[in-house]
């Protein structure tokens, strides 16, 4: 259980992020200063830095929250569900946000992709999420079968491939010919086309200890 203090801090972070997003959309990311963000929520610059280390962190705060939603969704999926299908259902977190009628998340994503430092920071977060997902999928495999030896290399590649499908679908709907409302449809199409043949091998290969389970 999270403490009242933690919940209060999170509420302030969300309030700052929402005010910052409004400024970024109105003025542009580079043109908005930390002082302006702090003033918008009635705090000093010094207080702002108690909650965020930089403007970049403010923009990506929402992605961090969505990542937590993604992990929660994975925990709610049936243990016997194929990993590929579990990942697709987890991605509904991003689909729901990016297809929201307000269009705000889509506009923020466009700001991120137009600013190289922001995009690099987001990609670093995506990489960390992928690592955590692979670890959680390995834990789910052991929960299904205590004798299992999850292949972390294959799981890492599987998660990376799923995120590549998500990225392709997002790019197509936000910058290509597809309508944003059809993001889920294009993601289904892409993930169905690249579904692993014959399932995913979780035993053998390189395991969590980094050694070959089967050697010549």
Write the layout of secondary structure elements.
Elements: H1 4-27, H2 34-40, H3 45-51, H4 55-76, H5 83-90, H6 92-98, H7 104-114, H8 116-144, H9 152-175, H10 183-193
Give a description of the structure.
This protein is mainly alpha-helical and 216 residues long. The chain has two domains: 1-52, Arc Repressor Mutant, subunit A, CATH 1.10.10; 55-216, Orthogonal Bundle (Tetracycline Repressor, domain 2), CATH 1.10.357. 69% of the residues lie in helices and 0% in strands. It contains ten helices and no strands. It has helices at residues 4-27, 34-40, 45-51, 55-76, 83-90, 92-98, 104-114, 116-144, 152-175, 183-193. Helix 1 packs across helix 2 (34-40) and helix 4 crosses helix 5 (83-90). The longest helix is centred in the middle third of the chain and has 29 residues, at 116-144.
Please supply descriptive tags for the structure shown above.
216 residues; mainly alpha; Arc Repressor Mutant, subunit A; Tetracycline Repressor, domain 2; 2 domains; 10 helices; globular; disordered C terminus
């Amino acid at each position: 259980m999270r403490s009242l203090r933690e919940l209060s801090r999170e509420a302030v972070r969300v309030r700052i992020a929402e005010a910052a997003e409004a400024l970024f959309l109105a003025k542009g990311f580079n043109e908005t200063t930390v002082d302006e963000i702090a003033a918008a929520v009635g705090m000093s610059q010094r207080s702002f830095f108690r909650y965020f280390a930089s403007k970049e962190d403010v923009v990506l705060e929402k992605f961090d929250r969505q990542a937590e939603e993604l992990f929660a969704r994975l925990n709610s999926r049936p243990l016997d569900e194929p990993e590929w299908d579990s990942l697709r259902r987890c991605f509904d977190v991003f689909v729901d946000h990016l297809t929201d009628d307000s269009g705000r998340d889509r506009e923020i994503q466009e700001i991120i992709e137009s600013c190289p430092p922001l995009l690099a920071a987001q990609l670093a977060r995506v990489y960390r999420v992928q690592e955590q997902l692979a670890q959680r999928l390995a834990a789910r495999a052991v929960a299904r079968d205590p004798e299992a030896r999850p292949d972390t290399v294959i799981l890492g590649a599987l998660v990376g491939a799923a995120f590549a499908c998500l990225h392709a679908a997002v790019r197509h709907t936000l910058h290509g010919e597809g309508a944003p409302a059809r993001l889920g449809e294009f993601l289904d199409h892409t993930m169905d086309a690249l579904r692993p043949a014959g399932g995913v091998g979780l035993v053998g290969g390189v395991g969590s200890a980094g050694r070959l389970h089967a050697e010549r």
